[in-house]
Write a structure and sequence with these properties.
alpha+beta; 14 helices; disordered C terminus
Length: 470
Amino acid sequence: MKTKERVIFLTIDFAMFAGFFASLQILQHLQNADAEATIFINVTTGLMAMLGLSVLMLIHSLEVVTGKTNSWNFMGMIVLTYLGVICDNLSWATNISAQFSAVNYILNMGGYLITPILLFLFWDYQNRVFLDEPRHIGRIKYIAGAATIADILYVIAGAVTGFLFYIDADGRYAYGSGSLFVYICPAIIVMCSIYENLRRELSLRKKLTLLAFDFVPIISMTFSIPLPQYSLVYLIFFVNLLLIYGTVQVKTERELAEKTARIAEQDRALAEQQTQIMISQMQPHFLYNTLTAIYRLCAKDTALAQKTIQDFSTYLRTNMDSIKNTAPIPFEKELAHTKTYLEIELLRFSSILNVEYDIEVTDFKIPALTLQPIVENAVRYGIRSRVYGGTVTISTKRSNGNIYLSVHDDGMGFDVNEKKNDGRSHLGIENTRNRLRQMMNAELIIDSQIGVGTTVTMILEDKHEAVIGG
């Protein structure tokens, strides 16, 4: 989250706490004015709601700052509910003297205006957070929006004409003849929300949760009609915010559990892929031919046979150990494993296979078993496909902030744009490409010309140079 946004959230939260402590003076004012008991009850209840909203805003701000959530909509509902409570509290405090008539009039109008806006925000929040529908489509959207605007206009007109409410000569709030009509538009907004929640294909748990959010305002309006002397609207809005917050937390934890399960599945797939890589590097024909070569050496050159067995054992052990390597390893280690493989191949194909090294840099890392499968392809499909054989060259160099690791063979080459059904296993190359991209954001480029040869190049970020340059 940007610093500016953090400042906004924390400033609003500080102002809300300051407003709560400042509003505590209202109780003293009412006590000095010998106010009625119902006024004390309403103001005390309102102060409790203000404190609860301030704490909820603090928790929400901390979650936003730490990146757990980023709901400006929810913040807007908290702030509007808080403002509604303030208007309600102050209207009761000014409802005891004619000298505050104008203030009382404005505060009551503000309280009425906030209600339809809050209801519309509740509905919008449901679609954004719970239903993943950032935009509402269809006539229901326009009906709810029109009801919100109509209610705002009705409040303004009703307050001006006295049809909704008026302030009498003693400075006290009084209901107008059209006061009950103010509930019509909010009821329409709630019914629009209920209709949308019912018509969607949702799980029973999600339907019941959303319907609970819708019925809380209905309960508020229902009790406000027979008990006009008690302020319940914004207190119940606060309760609804608590319900929404708790539900969002459960939803977030569920999504986190699902994400953890997905990561575990990805790890399982990666382990499976690594096993496939290992198997692809230990082709049955390679194992069989190596063992056959060792068998023949046992009768001709015992010392060489023993060395070959040792090399073969090292090769197999390195392949097995590579399964455990989920992080890049030093290039020198991978190069040593590749050299072990090449020594075995040179034993079998010394007459046609030549190996050269042009290693300029070694201070970098690569994923395990990435160089060896590329070299194996160069030997098997490049050099051994020619009658007179050829040379495999392994080279590294540092240039323009990158490390270039190349394997070149002057074999038969092939058309890189043509997919050949030649029975070859390309699993090793594809796995190498994928692992380079996933583990190091590196590239693998294949350049080949028929009759000239093939060059496979890995392009890796030169982290050593970045450290030196930093």
